[in-house]
Amino acid sequence: MAESVGIGKTGKNGLLFNSRYGPRLILGGLVTSAALPEITWPDQKEIGCPEGCFICQENCPVRAIDKIGKVNRLACAKYSQKTPLFSYLMKTKTFDPADVPMLNHVTGVDDHAMYTCIKCVSTCPYTA
Ligand code: SF4
Ligand code: SF4
User: Fold this and answer.
1) How many domains does the chain have?
2) Is residue 24 in a domain?
3) Which of 12, 13, 17, 80 should be mutated for ligand 1, with most atoms under 8 A from CB?
4) Does residue 90 belong to any structural domain of this protein?
């Protein structure tokens, strides 16, 4: 969707890439019945990651991104998906084992609580 409206291109780290902000983008949406003016398209034509750049691939601690930008999601998830809430509850032993599926869903829905590695974003030299 973001590619279609010209915000960016799928980058070599598998994330949306914008030439000004790199992969540091969070998309949001709003459902409304308000009468709004027509959409404005970005002035700039996004061309995506520079051909010779492989910084994100080279910095991935588990080499989960190949040179054409295909991400091995399992390798990434195994390394980067830690659930702080889950770890906290395990440490403090303040949860009922029967709640494990529910806790998994809670942390799964809130994506930002899960990822402890963002090297493929933080090492990208494109930043505003
Ligand atoms: S989040 Fe970390 S492990 Fe996953 S692809 Fe990016 S750098 Fe690799
Ligand atoms: S580090 Fe290079 S290849 Fe990776 S997302 Fe940034 S510009 Fe693209």
Assistant:
1) 1
2) yes
3) 80
4) no
